[in-house]
Each structure stands twice: as structure tokens, then as C-alpha cells.
Write a structure and sequence with these properties.
Elements lengths: L3 H10 L11 E3 L8 H10 L1 E5 L4 H17 L20 H4 L5 E5 L18 E6 L1 H4 L1 H7 L2 H9 L5 E9 L9 E4 L13 E6 L10 E3 L10 E5 L5 E5 L11 E2 L7 E5 L4 E3 L10 E8 L23
Parallel strand pairs: 1-2
Antiparallel strand pairs: 2-12, 3-4, 4-5, 5-14, 6-13, 7-12, 7-14, 8-11, 8-13, 9-10
The chain binds fe (ii) ion.
The site of fe (ii) ion (FE2) has 3 residues, from loops.
Length: 311
């Protein structure tokens, strides 16, 4: 948890805000337009929490649609596992070709020794990805509100496009840990233009594996690149060997409906979910179309599904 010293400045900035988070947090602006104070905090801390950005009804609608998609998914058809810690998805074509698809990825502890699911199908999935925002009308509508477009515009994008979407389930008891990383490692552009937009659809707490950030560390270098090598295999290249400072992460507990905006270089992680409650969230990553998108990034789109902005 925060020390008094480390929290002092942030508490001063977020006066009148009631939260245990030592991260900048504001009530969401009704029109989505970020204020000067919000933008200053975002630039200084690398992340920004906006409570009540999404209504309870819209959170429920997205959860319901995800439930419908999961109901239609036959787990006997594919057993692709996503594990941030063990990188089990490396070399998995079902994963690597999901940039323009709606695909389903299990938790690493989803199956028992006989290959049977230990929990319900929904409580066995790590995530759905990575193009619901372009392929499903409910996700499309959620991803392209005027309010979100205004928030994105506030950040100074000239031609923002939504690169990927993920529905993250962080299921009870088996929700996997995610190591400290920067999203620009995986969604790299030149210059770097990646920003994450993470919507809590259920309350995210320390107990059920909320995100944690290292405030201010986005001003440091990008530490790794995830690229396809000349042999066609994905791998990591270390750019900076300096370890993350010990004990510097701060929890980003978020009530359902909160939007967390974070810089592509903002280091973040989440613990395992050992609780009895799921932690559903929806994430979008935005880049600027004017930046160069390398052909060796893992996520590629074919000409049949070009990237779209917020229109
Ligand atoms: Fe991430």
C-alpha cells in the first residue's frame, strides 16, 4: 500500500475524491472531454481513473452480450490457453491470427487432468479477443460512443483508430496473474501512440485481481519489444535491463463503470484472482493511424478488415 509520503502529492491533487487509490481519480466528465487537471495528472502519472464513465445499464449490456458469445462457443472446438506468466499462446496460430477475429482463450488452470473444465465455461475463460469492436454490433456501439471519442480526442490524437479489444474475465479462483509490463511492448508503433482504455464492468478490487500501476514510470524507457522474428516465431527483445522498482506498484481499485486510461508505456500488472468473485473488464487499445505500424507486431489485420476510428 501507499506510504504517506508517496501519497501526499496525489492526495493533494485529488482532494475531495474518496478512494484508497494513490492514483489520479475523478468523476467522469459528462461529455468525455478531459479537463486540464485530468490531462496534467495523466501526463505525470501515466494513468487516470474516471469513475462512472459507463452506466450500470451499459455495463450489464456488454456483460450480457459477452455471455451470449460464450454460450455459442463450443469449448470442444478449441482449447487455446492464454497465460501472461507462461506465454503459452506463443506459437499458437489460433491466438496469433485473432487480431481480426472473435476468439476465446482459457485460463491455464481451467482444465483438470482429464481435460475437463473445472468450472463453468464462463468461469474458465481468461479473455475473448481481439476484434469484437469491429465484428459485433453490441461491442461496436460500446466502443464508439461520442463520450469515449471525446476522451480520446482530448489526448491529442490526430487520427485515432481502435487496434484491438479484449473482454477480460479474470474468473474466480483461477484468474491468472499478469506480470508487470508495458502495452507498447505488444502494440508498438513508431512513434509510440498506444493508449489503453480499460472499463471495469464489475468492481475490481485487490482481492479479485485489480490492476496495479507504477505511477510516473511511463516516462522511462520501453523495456521490451514483442516481435515476429525472421523464423516466423514471436519472441521478446529486451531493450532495457533495469528492473522495475520494488514495491512501487499502486492498486487501481475500480468500481464497475470506471474507465482507466493508461499510457502505452505505463507499467502495470495484476495479481491472481483467488476470490469467489469474477472481475470482468473490457479493454480497447488506440493508436494513431499516422504512426508506422510494424509488420512484425503480433497483431495484424488483413485488407478485409481495416482499422476504424470512432465514426
Ligand atoms: Fe497490459
Amino acid at each position: 500500500m501507499c506510504t504517506l509520503f508517496s501519497c501526499t502529492k496525489v492526495v493533494a491533487m485529488v482532494l475531495n475524491k474518496s478512494s484508497i487509490n494513490c492514483l489520479p481519480e475523478y468523476p467522469a466528465p459528462p461529455d468525455g472531454q478531459l479537463s486540464e487537471d485530468m490531462l496534467r495528472d495523466f501526463r505525470e502519472q501515466g494513468c487516470l481513473l474516471l469513475t462512472g464513465f459507463v452506466s450500470e445499464r451499459d455495463c450489464a449490456r456488454l456483460k450480457s452480450r459477452a455471455h451470449e458469445l460464450i454460450e455459442k462457443f463450443d469449448p470442444r472446438s478449441v482449447k487455446s490457453v492464454f497465460s501472461a506468466m507462461e506465454q503459452t499462446q506463443l506459437g499458437d496460430r489460433y491466438f496469433e491470427e485473432s487480431g481480426g477475429k472473435i476468439r476465446f482463450f482459457f485460463e491455464k488452470d481451467a482444465f483438470d487432468d482429464n481435460g475437463q473444465l473445472r468450472q463453468s465455461k464462463e468461469d474458465s475463460l481468461n479473455k475473448i479477443g481481439h476484434a469484437m469492436h469491429d465484428l459485433d454490433p453490441v461491442f461496436d456501439a460500446f466502443s464508439r460512443t461520442a463520450k469515449l471519442a471525446a476522451a480520446v480526442d482530448s489526448l491529442g490524437y490526430s487520427d485515432p483508430v481502435i487496434l484491438q479489444s479484449m473482454y477480460i474475465l479474470k474468473p474466480p479462483r483461477i484468474g491468472g496473474e499478469v506480470y508487470c509490463h508495458q502495452d507498447s511492448t505488444f502494440l508498438y508503433t513508431e512513434p509510440e501512440t498506444c493508449t489503453g482504455f480499460w472499463f471495469a464492468l464489475e468492481d475490481a478490487t485487490v482481492d479479485n485481481g485489480c490492476m496495479h500501476f507504477i505511477p510516473g514510470a511511463h516516462t522511462g524507457p520501453l523495456k521490451e519489444l514483442h516481435q515476429r522474428g525472421s523464423d516466423g516465431k514471436m519472441g521478446f527483445t529486451t531493450l532495457d535491463h533495469t528492473p522495475w522498482p520494488a514495491g512501487a506498484t499502486r492498486p487501481a481499485e475500480a468500481k464497475a463503470g470506471t474507465l482507466v486510461i493508461f499510457d502505452g508505456r505505463a507499467p502495470h500488472m495484476s495479481g491472481p484472482n483467488l476470490s469467489a468473485n469474477s472481475r470482468h473488464a473490457y479493454t480497447l487499445h488506440v493508436i494513431d493511424r499516422s504512426s508506422h505500424y510494424p509488420a512484425d507486431n503480433w497483431l495484424q489485420r488483413g485488407p478485409d478488415l481495416p482499422l476504424r476510428g470512432f465514426d
